[in-house]
Amino acid sequence: MLYVKNAVGTSDKKCPYGYDSWLDFWEKRSNRSATYCRCCGKPYVNLVGGHVQIVTVGIDGKWHPSPQLYIVPICQDCNVSGTTIFHVDSNDLVKAE
Ligand SMILES: [Zn+2]
């Protein structure tokens, strides 16, 4: 289990050529269909492929994001609210390019 948070300032990032969206990118790369939000857990909501970063607790007791960006399916509400830290399975993370 890994902890992640929404990455800031990624809304203008275009998905790679050959994919319809970041959600499409996630589904094709993971070979699964996105059926629920990995943040709030709600099924069959309006999902997007959200950019997240893995966070770990530093010696200062605060969350520190790592630079690598990953895509996970999250709903529009969670994608907007932003600062929530949530946990995902490692196989839910698809590396963004
Ligand atoms: Zn959600």
Task: Characterise the protein shown here.
The protein is of the alpha+beta class. It contains two helices and six strands. It has one domain. The protein is 15% helix and 32% strand. Strands 1, 2, 3, 4, 5 and 6 form a six-stranded antiparallel beta sheet that branches. A hairpin with a 5-residue loop joins strand 2 and strand 3. Residues 37, 39-40, 42, 74-75, 77-78 line the site of zinc ion (ZN).
List the helices and strands and how they pair.
Layout lengths: L1 E5 L15 H9 L16 E11 L5 E3 L4 E6 H6 L3 E4 L5 E2 L2
Antiparallel strand pairs: 1-2, 1-5, 2-3, 2-4, 4-6
The structure holds zinc ion.
Summarize the structure.
With 97 residues, the protein is α+β, with helices and mostly antiparallel strands.
Considering the chains and any ligands shown, give keywords for the structure.
2 helices, 6-stranded antiparallel β-sheet, alpha+beta, binds zinc ion, 97 residues
Poorly predicted ranges (pLDDT <50, ≥5 residues)?
none
Strand content: 25-35%
Question: Taking all residues together, what is the mean pLDDT?
Answer: 93
Order of helices and strands: EHEEEHEE
Give Rg in angstroms: 13 Å
End-to-end distance: 22 Å
